[in-house]
Amino acid sequence: MTELDPVIHAQARLRVVASLSALNVGDKIAFPRLQELLAMTAGNLSVHLRKLEDAGYVEISKTHRGRTPATLVGLSRRGRLAFEEYTEAIHALLDPAPSKEQP
C-alpha cells in the first residue's frame, strides 16, 4: 500500500501546498494574500508554514515593499516534487490497478 507524506497529509498543510502548487514555478505569494485565500489565522498559517519549511517544501523570504516588511511564500522544487508524489499516491489509493481475475 502506498504511503502518504505525513508532512503534506495534514489538512491545513495540504491546503497550503495545493494552493502554492497553482503558482508558476519560482513565483511567490504574499503571506497576507495566502492567509486570506485559505481563511486561516496568521498564527495557524505560520505554524504550518514552519513545518513545511523545515521539510524543505516551501521557501519563505522576508523583504520590504517600501518601508513595509513583506513575507513571501513559494513552493520549493522539493515541495513541488513531494506534492506530485503525494497526488500520485492518492490516485493509486483511489484507483488501484485491477487485479487479475482468478479462474
From TrEMBL:
This is Winged helix DNA-binding domain-containing protein. Residues 19-93 form the Winged helix DNA-binding domain. SUPFAM superfamilies: Winged helix' DNA-binding domain.
